Amino acid sequence: MTDRPKTPLLDTVLAPSDLKLLSDSQLRTLADELRQETISAVSTTGGHLGAGLGVVELTVALHAVFDTPRDRLIWDVGHQCYPHKILTGRRDRIRTLRQKDGLSGFTKRSESPYDPFGAAHSSTSISAALGFAVARDLGGAPDHGLGDAIAVIGDGSMSAGMAFEAMNNAGHLKKRMIVILNDNEMSIAPPVGALSSYLSRLYAGDPFQEFKAAAKGAVSLLPSPFQEGARRAKEMLKGMTVGGTMFEELGFSYLGPIDGHDMDQLLPVLRTVKERATGPILIHAITKKGKGYAPAETAHDKGHGVSKFDMVTGKQKKTPSNAPSYTSVFAQQLLKHAEQDSKICAITAAMPDGTGLTQFNERYPSRCFDVGIAEQHGVTFSAALAAGGMKPFCAMYSTFLQRGYDQVVHDVAIQRLPVRFAIDRAGLVGADGATHAGAFDVAYLANLPGFVVMAAADEAELARMVATAVAYDDGPIAFRFPRGEGVGCDIPENPEPLEIGKGRMIREGSGVALLSFGTRLAEVQRAAEQLQAKGVNVTIADARFAKPLDQTLILQLAADHDALITIEEGAVGGFGSHVAQLLADEGVFDEGLKYRSMVLPDIFIDQSSPDDMYAVAGLSADAIEAKVMEVLGVVPMAQAT
Ligand SMILES: Cc1ncc(C[n+]2csc(CCOP(=O)(O)OP(=O)(O)O)c2C)c(N)n1
Ligand SMILES: CC(=O)[C@@H](O)[C@H](O)COP(=O)(O)O
Ligand SMILES: [Mg+2]
Fold first, then answer.
1. What is the per-residue pLDDT across 242-284, written as a single tens digit (0 to 9) for each?
2. Which ranges in the chain are annotated with CATH 3.40.50.920?
3. In the structure, which protein residues have their CB atom closer than 6 angstroms to any atom of ligand 1?
4. Before 352, cis peptide (omega within 30)?
5. Alpha-carbon distances of 354 from 126, 164, 198, 301, 429, rounded to whole Å
6. Catalytic residue among 367, 403, 425, 544
7. pLDDT digits (tens, 9 = 90+) for 519-532
8. Read out DSSP for 153-208?
9. Is residue 302 within 8 Å of 296, Cβ to Cβ?
10. Residues 72, 90, 175, 289: which is the catalytic one?
11. If DSSP codes are grouped into helix, strand and coil, which group holds residue 15?
């Protein structure tokens, strides 16, 4: 049990309106306490630590100056919102973060009126703020009030196309709205790209003391070389226009850069903006990810995502494992192939660690591309790499690939280009909850003509699927695998490519055939053992391919059994739907086959452990066993009595 920090001032804050009663110096103290409370809470839950620590002062200042929830405060991604949750009436539940029935790790409309717009995927906040600003000016729903719209967006998230689409529109509409660019020179990994270099140039030198003096009205106290700069900063605060930055070219007033940890700058700047802003304004705040907690500040990822940890040492409590993660199996296999094949290249959209490509980047920097938070661009870029004769492995989380869907259709599938999609975090992911569930990729890929879609049942199968993707050059191919560890099976030294569209039999039984697609296979096998103990001997097959289907295998299973049940870690419209279509087309249903398709239910499942989420989804071994019994017409004991 971690000792809770002493937080006398924070204890008096029940709602952001209480901040209005505090002096500026008390607000500074409050920020210190809020930081300690955030560290303490995350030490017991794990989660996104560094981003929240970097916006503690900003959070206090925004709630102190603006009138939330009437003023709409929109956190981009939402992974930095824990201090905001603590200040907005959720402190009593903050140690339930990211757990079953607990607080979400992101902003969520259903959780609080202080979360006007939910998030978890990046770069949506400026569009949302603009929407609120326009709704306000058009009269909107009565509960929209007449408040301000404020987006807080990180430098990493600012690199995405969506942010620029929104700024382009906002600069044109000229509505009063506030964007705070929280620039900590970090994404999850160090940010890459020209925008990042541009932002750094905006604060080359040491502008902070000039701004600070201007904010305090103490320009004359500065050494003379700095007085001119400070006068400019003062003008900025007064008139809110200076020329020259890209943001101004897009129609925003630009204020900054300011030190985002210095209340003496934050408070006067925000107060001035609140009083005087007319059109769109961007405040450039420089912050430190992980600020105020040494283990986070010094970590390579600045404490972006952590497990539970010891508050004193910062040492994280990781559960030991005997099996490698699917991500590491993918990464190792790809590296091995890349040694032999110089055409192989790898693409990540700001997730080099998460997708396992860090080592690939170290070994083959000229063939590895971190495109920033730019999934759309990443997909089209991969398409052209393929058209140009390379073998691109576009490694993305299932949930983030959603953002590049038109590019998958228009640039990859229609042109039948051999992009290899390595789809990580397939299925339910646990603590990140519904926003990060990899639920839809099978449905949205397998309906595209010419796509090959595979799901690995274990890590050896994943290794074979990487080999298959390397060898396959006839069009787009995707393989999906989940977050977390494999089953601990042996991985062959030289995994053989699979025959396209060929599944495999796992166990021969009779009566009912279970046809699994992906890593539910382990649960299917568990269910089969439970059934065996009850005298029911089912058949199991691993489909491997949702497209092209192994028609021979499926029709044989249908012919040899009274019932066929498909199981997958995806939403309706995926593997099971394709099997149903085949069976219908072949007239198999007319012959009386009992068919069931076990898919994710038609709900968004909130965060919990993956096992628990799959139980909620009705995809556990017990649920599979129950489905078999239902198909066989065996009434469970409890119901029979
Ligand atoms: C569309 C999308 N792609 C990728 C991610 C994964 N992701 C979450 S936070 C993050 C980094 C964001 O960097 P920044 O906006 O600078 O915030 P910071 O963490 O530095 O505070 C990334 C890449 C995401 N949430 N959404
Ligand atoms: C906020 C966000 O989108 C990422 O930080 C995500 O939480 C990472 O997930 P993994 O832990 O599965 O890499
Ligand atoms: Mg950042």
1. 557 999 999 999 999 999 999 999 999 999 999 999 999 999 9
2. 504-640
3. 51, 54, 77, 79-80, 121-122, 154-157, 184, 186-188, 289, 349-351, 373, 375, 400, 403
4. no
5. 26, 25, 26, 11, 13
6. 403
7. 999 999 999 999 99
8. EETTGGGSHHHHHHHHHHHHH---EEEEEEE-S-SSSPP-SHHHHHHHHHT-S--H
9. yes
10. 289
11. coil
Per-residue confidence (pLDDT) for residue 205, from 0 to 100: 62
10-298 is classed CATH 3.40.50.970: yes
Write down the residue that tokens 């975090």 correspond to: 425
The CATH number of the structural domain formed by 504-640 is 3.40.50.920
Element housing 84 (H / E): helix 82-85
So what's the pLDDT on residue 641? 47
Q: Is 119 in the pocket of ligand 2 (CB under 6 A)?
A: no
The helix (run of H) or strand (run of E) holding residue 216 is: helix 208-216
Ligand 3 is an ion; residues with CB less than 5 A from it: 154-156, 184, 186
375 in active site: yes
- Degrees to nearest 5, angle at CA 49 with 45 and 53: 130
Measured from the Cα of 123, ligand 1's closest atom is 1
Amino acid at 262: D
Residue 403 falls in the annotated catalytic set? yes
Give the residue carrying structure tokens 């709630």.
63
pTM tops 0.90, yes or no: yes
- 354 CB under 6 A from ligand 2? yes
- CATH class as words, domain 326-480: alpha beta
Task: Tell me which of 82, 436, 485, 607 to substitute to probe ligand 2's pocket, judged by most ligand atoms within 8 Å of the beta carbon.
Answer: 436
- Residue 192 confidence (pLDDT): 87
- For residue 471, the surrounding DSSP H or E stretch is helix 459-471
Choose the residue to mutate in 84, 187, 347, 402 for probing ligand 1, maximizing ligand atoms within 8 Å of C-beta: 187
Out of 375, 523, 568, 569, the active site residue is: 375
How far away, in angstroms, is 349 Cα from ligand 1 center? 10
Q: Where in the chain are all domains bearing CATH 3.40.50.970?
A: 10-298, 326-480
Top mutation candidate among 124, 327, 432, 607 for ligand 2, by most atoms within 8 Å of CB? 432
Ligand 1, atom 25, lies closest to the CA of 121
Catalytic site includes residue 20: no
* pLDDT at res. 203: 78
Residues 457/411/375/158 CA torsion (nearest 10 deg): -170
User: What's the DSSP call for residue 86?
Assistant: I
Helix (H, G, I), strand (E, B) or coil at 515: strand
Q: What is the per-residue pLDDT for 399?
A: 98
Residues of the chain with pLDDT under 70: 1-2, 142-144, 205-243, 635-641
Q: pLDDT value at position 3?
A: 77
- Ligand number, closest to the Cα atom of 159: 1
